[in-house]
Amino acid sequence: MDWGLKNRLSNIIKPQDNRALMLAVDHGYFLGPTEKLENPRKVIAPLLKYCDSLMVTRGIQRTSVPATTSTPMVLRVSGGSSIIGEDLSQEDITVSIQDAIRLNASAVAMSIFVGSKYEHQTIVNLGKLVNKAEKYGIPVLAVTAVGKELGKDSRYLSLACRIAAEQGAHIVKTYYCDNFEKVVQSCPVPIIVAGGKKIPERDALQLTYDSIKGGAVGVDMGRNIWQSEHPVAMIKAVRSIVHGNSNVDQAYDLYKQFINEDPKKKQKSSKPNPSKPKKPNPSKK
Length: 285
Ligand code: R5P
Prior knowledge:
Blueprint: H1 3-12, E1 20-24, H2 28-31, H3 40-47, E2 53-57, H4 58-64, E3 73-76, E4 78-79, E5 92-93, H5 97-102, E6 107-112, H6 119-135, E7 140-144, H7 154-166, E8 171-174, H8 180-185, E9 191-194, H9 201-213, E10 218-221, H10 223-226, H11 231-242, H12 248-261, H13 263-270
Parallel strand pairs: 1-2, 1-10, 2-3, 3-6, 6-7, 7-8, 8-9, 9-10
Antiparallel strand pairs: 4-5
The structure holds ribose-5-phosphate.
């Protein structure tokens, strides 16, 4: 592996513990202004220092991430369909490698849709992206996107992850599933787990824990962080599992503790409550 490629990869998967916490904010590329990600700048600002890397599109990177940040960027370079369009799997590469370099991307990311109508197109695009990115020492993260009709089972995900790795992806993002260890064992490159739809905080912490235990290097979590009532507390709790080896109970206790430490909450509780009648002050006459 070339020095540049190794160096960029080590920005994403931390060499100290071989773990990664990626914050996903790229949803708008096909979902538009997703709930609670309507204003990405506001969402990203308080969370940026707690993630190892940010998964982002170039539009959001340029408009909503301060260029002074030291957090590495994982740049989504695929797109071309929308949630209301004909077929979500009809994606192409939409960002040039030159633009990824201008944006100082630590990795480029794209989705492949194994088993879908556009399987061929997306897998060939992955191979082509690896050709271009490797020329400049930029790692490629392949996202094994799952179509509506395809289940998130270990047989399917093993197939999709292995195909991504065979095409030369350096990291594969996939979903957690039963027998997840099998998916990891048959994929020769590191696997990172996508958070998926919003679930209760404790369940999302369980997913993080199970993913790591099953052999993933970490999680790329979006909705379960920024759709939480307490995004900072949540990312810190997830971090305690990824990098601090907390178990689920410990992480959930930390989550509750972090909520209480939240300055916003303190501010709220120190404000007088206008609906409460004032107690008479005996010292005042
Ligand atoms: C999908 O739009 C992206 O690949 C997301 O980055 C990925 O699904 C992770 O985000 P979430 O945890 O919200 O599923």
